[in-house]
Amino acid sequence: MKIKANLILIIMTLFSALLTVWLVNVYVNTRISNTNQEIEQKYAMFADEQEICDVVVCSADISAGAVIGKEDVMVLKINRKTICDANIISDPAQVINQRAQYKMYKGEWIVPERVHNVSKISTVMGQDKRAFRLWLDQTSGLIGLVEPGSMVDVLAVVPGASRQQKVSKIVLQNIRVLAVANRIVQNNSAAENMLDNSRDQKKKQSNTPKATTVTLEVTPEQALGLALVMESGKIHLALRDSKNQEVMESFSILTLDTLLQKGEEASNKISDTENIPQENTADMTHFEKADNEVGNK
C-alpha cells in the first residue's frame, strides 16, 4: 500500500509539473502574441505618421559589372522625409539580374543610375556601334529635357595652351541618345511612343532627379575621343531638333578671350551707329536724292 501511495504521489507531482509548464507556456505565448500585436499596431501608426516606404539596398558589396542576384539585395523601411533622391527603387525585382554600372557597397541604396541592362541596350544599338555612358548633372543642363531617342551634339571644355585658359569645341554632332538612366529607347509604334512619352512626362514632372546618366550611340573612334575629353576636361550636351540632321564639317575653337573680344566688337559697332549725328544722316539723304535726280535727267 505504501508503494502504491508513493506511485500515486509521483504521478500527481509529474502531472502538476506538466500542467504548470503548459500554463506557463500558454501565458508566455499569449504575452508574446499580445506584444507582437502591440508592436504591429504602433508600427502601423508610426508608418502612417512618418510615411514609411521600402528602399532596396545592397546586402553585400557588389563589384562593377557584376550581375545582381537575390542574395545581393534587401529591403529596408525608410522614412520618406529623409530621402533626398526621389528616384529610389522599392521593388527588388527591378534590380535583380541587372548589371551593376559602378561598384556598390553593403548598405548602399540602389538607384536606377547605378544599374543597367546591357542586353536591352544591345538590341536597339546599331551595328558596329558602341554605347558610351556619360554622367549628367544640373550644371551640365538638359536634365528632364533629353529623352531616349533624342539627338544631341557633344561639347567639350578642355584646358588651353596655359593652365588658366580654357577652350570649347563641338566634338560630336547628331548623336543618338540610347538611354537616360534606366529608360532605354524603344522600337515601338508611333502611338505607343506617344503613350510612353506621355507617361514619362508625368513621371518626370513629379520626380526630376538632380543627376542622371545618359548613354550615347557612338562609333569606336568617337568613344575613344569622348574618353579622352572626359579625362582632360568636361563634357556638355546640346539638344538638337529631331528634323535637323545637318552635320557641319568644321567648327572653330572658342576661347574666353575670343568670346569677350567678339562681344566688345559688337558693342563698339552698336555705339558707333548710335553716335552718328542726325544732320549727317539728313545730308546723306539729301545727296542721295540729288544723285537720283541727276540720274533720272
Give the arrangement of secondary structure elements.
Blueprint: H1 2-50, E1 52-58, E2 73-79, E3 99-100, E4 115-116, H2 118-124, E5 130-137, E6 151-159, E7 166-180, E8 183-184, H3 190-206, E9 211-218, H4 220-232, E10 234-239, E11 254-255, H5 256-274, H6 278-296
Antiparallel strand pairs: 1-2, 3-4, 5-9, 6-7, 6-10, 7-8, 7-9, 7-11
Entry keywords:
297 residues; 7-stranded antiparallel beta sheet; 42% helix; two-stranded antiparallel ribbon; alpha+beta; 4 domains
Return the average pLDDT rounded to an integer.
76
Number of strands: 11
Unreliable stretches covering 5 or more consecutive residues: 188-198, 279-287
Based on secondary structure, the structural category is: alpha+beta
What is the compact description of this entry?
The protein is α+β, with helices and mostly antiparallel strands and 297 residues long.
Describe the protein in words.
- The chain is an alpha+beta fold and 297 residues long.
- It has four domains: 1-50; 51-115, Antifreeze-like/N-acetylneuraminic acid synthase C-terminal domain (Type Iii Antifreeze Protein Isoform Hplc 12, Alpha-Beta Complex); 117-252, no CATH class; 262-296.
- The protein has six helices and eleven strands.
- The chain has helices spanning 2-50, 118-124, 190-206, 220-232, 256-274, 278-296, and strands at 52-58, 73-79, 99-100, 115-116, 130-137, 151-159, 166-180, 183-184, 211-218, 234-239, 254-255.
- Strands 5, 6, 7, 8, 9, 10 and 11 form a seven-stranded antiparallel sheet that branches. Strands 1-2 form a two-stranded antiparallel ribbon.
- It is elongated and about 135 Å long.
